[in-house]
Write a structure and sequence with these properties.
homodimer; 260 residues; six-stranded mixed sheet; 12 strands; elongated
Chain lengths: 260, 260
C-alpha cells in the first residue's frame, strides 16, 4: 500500500512572483510585495524561488506568464489591474491562456455596490470587472475591484495594502508543504574569519541552506549574520549549536539570535 | 553619406538587473539596489527593462546570465561575491562565459593592502580575488574586494552602499542614449474618473509612456499621480499641459507636480 500522505508531505511547492509595472523598473516606486509574499507563502509551505520584474508590455507579460506557470506550482502577479489604459494585466493573462476576456457579473455587481453617483461605474471602471473566461474572483475588501485566479496564476493588485488583503483571503485555495524554519545567529566577527569553518558546517548539514550576510556597522566594527534555513527545527537546533561553538572557537560572541 | 551620429543617438540602451540571493527570495532582506540602479542608469541613457531575482544556485545563475546577456545591452548582477560558501556568483558567471575562474593579481594586491594581522588574507578571503578569465575589475572603494566586468555583464556587490560605490566608478565604461525625462502630475480625482480622457491623451502622444497610479490617502480622499515619460522635454511640456487641462475639465486640482 502506497503511503500517499508521506509522499504528499514531502513535496515542495514553488512560486514565482511576476511584478508588472514600468513604475518599478523606472525606480519611481519601490516594490513592497516581494518580501511580504515570500514570508506569507513560506508560512503555508510554499517557497518563492523566482521573481520577475517586467514592463507594461502585453507580449512580455504573455511570454513571461506562460514561461513561469509551466515551471512553478503557483504564479502570483502584482500590478496592472486598475481602470486606466496602462492596466493590461487581465487582457494579457487571458491571451496567455488563450481565452477571451469577459465581463464577470459578480465583479460588476461588486463594483456597482461600491460606485455611487459620486463615482459612477463608467466604461473605464467597468474594465475592472473583466476577467479571463474561466477565472475565479479574488476578493478585494479594500477597494472592491477584484483580482482573479486562472489555473495556477493568481492576479493581485499592485498597491501593497490591497495585494496583502487579497492574498490573506486566498486561504484554502493554496496547498503547501512544510514551512521552512529560519534561525539567525549574528556575531561580532568578520565574514572572512569564519568562512572556512562555516563551509564545513554547511557540508555536515547538506539539507540546510546556510547563508552568511555581513552586517555593516561603521562604529561597532565587524558583524555577520549566519542564517540557517530548513524544514526541521531539530536540525536547526543542532546545526545552530555547531555554529555557536564555532563562533566561540574564533573568540567571537553572539550578538543576536532569532527564529522566524 | 550615412549620418552615423544620428543613428547612434537614436539607439536605445537596455539593461537587466539580476538580483542573486536566497535572502531576497525568502523575504529576509528587502532589495535596495533595483530602484537606485534604475535611476542611475536612466541618468546615463540606459533603460532597465527587466529584473530577475534568483536563488544561489549555480545552474540557475548560469542559465539566467546567458539568457539575459544575449537580450540586453548591459547586465548587472548584485550579490554573492563575498568570501563564504554561498557566494558563488564569480564561479557561475565564469561558467556562463565558458572560461576558468582565475586569481587576479591586482585584486589580490588590493585585498593584501587592506588585510592586516587582524584580518589575515586567508583562503576564504582570497576567493574574493578570483574572477573569470578575461574579466576587468570594478573598484570597491569601501571594502576593497572588487567586482568585475566580463563582456556586457557587470558583477556588483549586494550590500547597497558597496553596489552604489561600484556603479559610480564605472563612468566611461557605460555608453548610453537619451535620458528619459519624467513629469509627474498628481491631482485630487479618482483614477476611474479620468481614465477615458487619459487614454485619449496617450493616443495623441504615442511616443510617451503615460502611467496612472492611485495614491491612497485614507483621510484626504482620492488622488492619482499621472506620470509622463519620454526623451523630449518639449513633448512632456505640451502633453503635460493637456493633462492639466483635462484635470480642470473634470473639476479637479493639481496637488503636486514634479520633474525628474
Amino acid at each position: 500500500m502506497t503511503d500517499t500522505s508521506a509522499a504528499s508531505s514531502a513535496k515542495t511547492y514553488s512560486a514565482c512572483l511576476v511584478i508588472i509595472g514600468n513604475e518599478i523598473l523606472s525606480g519611481r516606486t519601490q516594490d513592497a510585495n516581494l518580501a511580504f509574499l515570500a514570508k506569507a507563502l513560506n508560512d503555508i509551505g510554499v517557497q518563492m524561488t523566482e521573481a520577475r520584474v517586467i514592463p507594461d508590455i502585453e507580449d512580455t507579460i504573455v511570454a513571461v506568464v506562460n514561461e513561469v506557470r509551466a515551471k512553478h506550482d503557483y504564479v502570483f502577479t502584482t500590478g496592472g489591474i486598475g481602470p486606466t489604459h496602462d492596466d493590461i494585466t487581465a487582457q494579457s493573462v487571458a491571451k496567455a491562456f488563450g481565452v477571451p476576456l469577459v465581463l464577470d457579473a459578480e465583479a460588476k455587481r461588486r463594483l456597482e455596490a461600491r460606485h455611487t453617483n459620486n463615482l459612477p461605474l463608467n466604461e473605464a471602471r467597468l474594465r475592472m470587472a473583466h476577467v479571463p473566461e474561466g477565472a475565479t474572483l479574488i476578493d478585494n475588501p479594500i477597494s472592491a475591484a477584484p483580482g482573479f485566479q486562472i489555473g495556477n496564476v493568481f492576479v493581485l493588485a499592485g498597491v501593497p495594502a490591497i495585494a496583502r488583503a487579497m492574498f490573506d483571503g486566498l486561504g484554502p485555495r493554496l496547498a503547501g508543504g512544510a514551512r521552512i524554519e529560519t534561525r539567525s545567529i549574528t556575531c561580532n566577527l568578520a565574514e572572512g574569519a569564519i568562512a572556512h569553518d562555516l563551509t564545513a558546517i554547511q557540508a555536515r548539514w547538506p539539507s540546510l541552506s546556510i547563508g552568511s550576510y555581513p552586517v555593516w556597522r561603521s562604529e561597532a566594527g565587524f558583524a555577520v549574520s549566519l542564517v540557517l534555513r530548513g524544514p526541521e527545527k531539530a536540525e536547526l537546533e543542532t546545526a545552530g549549536s555547531a555554529v555557536i561553538a564555532m563562533i566561540a572557537d574564533h573568540g567571537g560572541i553572539v550578538i543576536e539570535e532569532a527564529w522566524s
